[in-house]
């Protein structure tokens, strides 16, 4: 049992009610890990041969030279004090501070040094040290202000001839300075220095300093001395009792040791009366990590026990992250039925972009393209991967044979996303889809647009050649053949022989594919028009490949709380009825323009609406203008517009989080990583940090060479089951390898 204390607060004072010291705690306090094991050579430990190392400066090294003499008195050998002369200054100080943990450690230390000494039943009952100057030094020490403590000691020695600080205080300062140097060296990856400082200060290698033991173990592992790292972890697991620290030890070891070494440490697990092992959470995480690796690499082998463990966790705990891990694992192994099962379970627990992306891929592999398109559509703008999956689902849906009859709503959103992403494959499929429904003019426009985005796309050129031939455009066909001469035999054969059977006329009417010109395409009489003008999505001529479309940020999904207009049907519907529309009409016009993805014009309309006398109109106008500027990636202007009129707390918070998120992303893209972290820190004060922003934070730390912070963030991301966390950890390891 560890040292235990119980305090009661009564009448403004703190009273120690009971104090029990058990043998195991005494053993832990009086022993330390033998970093220089006699069975291990100096070459193995890295402490045998002297060699120059860059060291992190300590507080003592930063002092003026004259202050470095302060601890000289401790070099003089002194006889061990009798129990009556035991220095209890530190004990009484920790008692007055209410620092239970340090009080326990101090009592255990004194018992180990002076076996005949008996701790006072109540340290506060004994007259306290009235030396206020000495108390101030102890206070500085307890706050970690070591250099200031040294300064205060030197100052008093200069003022009072013959005064010497307690030896215990000097010992503690020296040990704290050694700890500080070791931690500093660990933070900047000076692993040889960490090992040397641990060897020189064995008092730090105890159960009371588990963090130091972890750092020494990591130093051994990073310098390819895995056996010594395992020894450090084994010492903790065989000597220390704190349950949380024992679990954390296994978690640290799992990041550095191979599986056989880790299995040896897992064998040191302790069990409660019910037979539950203390390392069950660690085993769960190890199983999750193994399955996550399997989800990244189809050749990775995952032990059956670990796979079954994650299966049980996902089934019993219903955690979306566990179900997603299994979904990606089975998707990598082309077991699409199992993948679909787990991704559906993940979406039932927590719908997310990652689960929807995986489910869409599984459904596409099984030919269920319509459901895949519907599932991934709400998440299409989350990441580049989700956008690509959506475009793939849309292209596969359009290319399904026989051609499906798609609702006008589905066709409209496919056209909008294809135009925004300038996706050649999907544009080509729109051409083939239109051709299947005998909308040849529309088909030709889509093939031409695909070629405008990629002039070397032969399938689009072939589709355009077939369309030119079908429409009797001999000159257009000849021009295509001239361009592709020597590059495509089948294009040269168009018009000379039967190159493709005529498309079958669908048995049921279908809405026409969205046109790529300013007027609706002429469709067969039996096929109704959708009434949606194509010019809302694309120009009348092919788009030059080097012109990037305007990307709408994630904040574009925000909608006004009131007066949100319906989806406009034509570009002209956003025009006002008069040359100078009033504020109310300008507000409606602004929302209409936002729906048409014309944020610059929308911002101007909202500016007019801001002149209204109605507080409601001004509030909605300021809200809309902020969204318009965010969609235009004008973050500073969005921040100004956000305060143009008072907003509800919910709206203000939503705008501020969106502005800071976009500001962080913009700073990262410009290489301003410190500004990135500042923006993320500000956002974290008003809203929880999303996973994608945590990933951004991790890479910002990595670019600033703060590998320790980057590793911590990516570990947290990986703990949620997100694959970006594992990618980030791999990037950290690669960076460390390059700097060695």
From TrEMBL:
Keywords: Signal. Residues 1-27 form the signal peptide. The keyword Signal applies. InterPro entries: TPR-like_helical_dom_sf (IPR011990). Residues 59-83, 513-526 have a biased composition (Low complexity). Residues 37-83, 502-526, 559-586 are annotated as: Disordered. SUPFAM superfamilies: TPR-like. Residues 503-512 have a biased composition (Pro residues). It comes from the Bacteria. This is Cellulose synthase. It comes from Neoaquamicrobium microcysteis. The lineage of its organism: Bacteria, Pseudomonadati, Pseudomonadota, Alphaproteobacteria, Hyphomicrobiales.
């Amino acid at each position: 049992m560890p040292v235990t204390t119980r305090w009661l607060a009564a009448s403004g004072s703190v009273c120690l009610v009971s104090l029990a010291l058990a043998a195991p705690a005494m053993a832990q306090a009086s022993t330390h890990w033998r970093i220089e094991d006699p069975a291990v050579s100096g070459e193995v430990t890295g402490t045998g041969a002297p060699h120059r190392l860059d060291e992190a400066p300590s507080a003592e090294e930063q002092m003026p030279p004259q202050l470095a003499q302060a601890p000289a008195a401790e070099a003089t050998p002194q006889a061990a004090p009798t129990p009556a002369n035991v220095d209890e200054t530190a004990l009484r100080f920790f008692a007055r501070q209410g620092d239970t943990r340090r009080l326990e450690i101090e009592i255990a230390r004194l018992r180990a040094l002076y076996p005949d000494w008996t701790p006072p039943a109540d340290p506060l009952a004994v007259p306290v040290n009235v030396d206020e100057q000495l108390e101030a030094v102890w206070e500085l020490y307890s706050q970690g202000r070591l250099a200031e403590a040294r300064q205060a000691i030197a100052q008093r020695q200069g003022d009072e001839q013959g005064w010497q600080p307690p030896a215990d205080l000097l010992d503690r300062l020296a040990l704290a300075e050694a700890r500080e140097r070791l931690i500093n060296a660990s933070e900047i990856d000076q692993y040889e220095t960490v090992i040397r400082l641990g060897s020189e200060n064995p008092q730090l290698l105890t159960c009371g300093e588990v963090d130091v033991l972890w750092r020494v173990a990591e130093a051994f592992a990073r310098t390819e001395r895995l056996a010594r790292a395992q020894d450090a972890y084994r010492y903790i697991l065989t000597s220390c009792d704190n349950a949380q620290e024992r679990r954390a030890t296994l978690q640290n070891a799992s990041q550095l040791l191979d599986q056989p070494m880790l299995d040896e440490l897992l064998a040191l697990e302790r069990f409660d009366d019910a037979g539950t092992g203390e390392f069950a959470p660690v085993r769960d995480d190890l199983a999750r990590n193994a399955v996550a690796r399997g989800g990244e690499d189809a050749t990775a082998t995952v032990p059956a026990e670990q796979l079954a463990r994650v299966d049980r966790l996902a089934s019993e705990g219903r955690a979306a992250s566990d179900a997603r891990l299994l979904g990606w694992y089975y998707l990598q192994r082309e077991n699409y039925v199992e993948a679909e099962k787990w991704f559906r379970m993940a979406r039932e627990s927590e719908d997310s972009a990652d689960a929807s992306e995986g489910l869409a891929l599984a459904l596409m592999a099984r030919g269920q393209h319509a459901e895949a398109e519907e599932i991934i559509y709400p998440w299409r703008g989350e990441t580049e991967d989700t956008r690509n999956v959506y475009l793939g689902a849309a292209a596969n849906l359009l290319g399904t044979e026989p051609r499906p009859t798609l609702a006008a709503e589905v066709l409209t959103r496919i056209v909008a996303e294809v135009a925004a992403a300038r996706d050649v494959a999907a544009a080509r499929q729109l051409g083939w889809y239109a051709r299947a429904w005998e909308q040849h003019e529309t088909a030709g426009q889509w093939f031409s647009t695909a070629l405008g985005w990629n002039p070397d796309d032969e399938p689009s050129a072939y589709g355009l050649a077939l369309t030119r031939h079908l429409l009797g455009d001999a000159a257009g066909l000849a021009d295509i053949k001239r361009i592709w001469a020597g590059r495509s035999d089948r294009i040269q054969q168009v018009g000379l022989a039967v190159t493709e059977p005529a498309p079958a006329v669908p048995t049921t009417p279908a809405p026409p594919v969205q046109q790529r010109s300013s007027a609706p395409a002429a469709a067969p009489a039996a096929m109704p028009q959708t009434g949606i003008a194509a010019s809302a999505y694309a120009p009348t001529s092919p788009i030059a490949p080097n012109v990037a479309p305007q990307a709408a940020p994630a904040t574009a999904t925000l909608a006004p709380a009131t007066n949100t207009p319906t989806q406009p049907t034509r570009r002209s519907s956003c025009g006002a009825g008069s040359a100078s529309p009033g504020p109310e009409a300008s507000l409606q016009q602004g929302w209409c323009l936002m729906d048409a993805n014309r944020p610059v014009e929308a911002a101007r309309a909202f500016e007019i609406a801001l002149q209204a006398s109605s507080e409601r109109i001004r509030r909605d106008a300021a809200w809309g203008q902020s969204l318009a500027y965010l969609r235009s990636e004008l973050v500073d202007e969005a921040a100004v517009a956000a305060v143009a009129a008072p907003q509800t707390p919910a709206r203000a918070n939503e705008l501020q989080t969106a502005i800071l998120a976009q500001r962080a992303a913009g700073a990262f893209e410009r290489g301003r990583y410190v500004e990135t972290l500042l923006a993320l820190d500000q956002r974290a004060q008003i809203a929880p940090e999303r996973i994608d922003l945590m990933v951004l934070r991790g890479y910002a730390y990595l670019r600033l060479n703060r590998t320790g912070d980057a590793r911590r963030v990516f570990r947290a991301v990986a703990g949620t089951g997100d694959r970006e966390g594992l990618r980030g950890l791999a990037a950290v390891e690669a960076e460390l390898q390059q700097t060695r």
